[in-house]
Amino acid sequence: MIDNETIEEILEDNGVSLYDTELTEENDNKIFRIYITSPKGISLDMCAKITNIISPIIDTDPPVSGQYFLEVSSPGIERALKKPKHFKNSIGEMIKLKTIHSKKYISKLLEADERGIRIEDKNKTVFLPYDEISKARTYIEW
Questions:
Q1: What angle do CA 110, 111, 117 make, to 5 degrees?
Q2: DSSP code at position 131
Q3: Sheet containing 104-112: order of strands
Q4: What is the b/e burial string over 129-138, where b = at least 16 CB atoms within 10 angstroms of the residue's CB?
Q5: Cα–Cα distances in angstroms (integers) from residue 115 to residues 82, 111, 112, 132, 133, in the given order
Q6: Are 114 and 82 in contact (CB under 8 A)?
Q7: Backbone phi, then psi, for 125, in 5-degree steps?
Q8: Could you please report the per-residue DSSP string of 40-105?
Q9: What average pLDDT does the chain have?
Q10: pLDDT tier, 79 (very low <50, low <70, confident <90, very high otherwise)
């Protein structure tokens, strides 16, 4: 099975970075998603180019067993925050998160390190270790 390190190398050789991968199931179909980023932004043409480059490589070394569909896309404006590097790259942005204790926050992300994050909540600073965060994403107030 192809690993994220190999995918990262292929993407970097083509001017984009790996944000994350995801294996999901929709309508009884397995979908392997590759989320890519670039300082210049991600266009549909770039997603198509990366799909055409990576698809034959993944076909010879599949990321999952059985039949699946490959999707390449941007993580979006309101992107999932799963890894410390995701949080570090989002410092200064508004985030929406839920803790394992079902507490919810919509707050500004002030800091992030290898242990956890620091957010602003009601004019005070709150530290949350990563293992207490069940779900997080960047947040845009529309």
A1: 105
A2: G
A3: 124-129, 116-121, 104-112, 94-99, 133-138
A4: ebeebeebbb
A5: 13, 11, 8, 11, 12
A6: no
A7: -95, 135
A8: T---HHHHHHHHHHHHHHHHHS-SSSS--EEEEE---SS-B--SHHHHHTTTTSEEEEEETT--EE
A9: 94
A10: very high
> Hey, what are 81's tokens?
């925050």
Q: Which residue has the tokens 């309101």?
A: 78
Which structural domains are found in the chain, ordered by start?
A: 4-73 (3.30.300.70), 84-138 (2.30.30.100)
Tracing tokens 């890894």 back to the chain, one arrives at 83
3-class DSSP state of 140: coil
pTM of the model: 0.83
Distance between CA 7 and CA 75 in Å, rounded?
16
Q: Which token pair is 89?
A: 């790259």
pLDDT tens for 15-67 read: 999 999 999 999 999 999 999 999 899 999 999 999 999 999 998 888 888 89
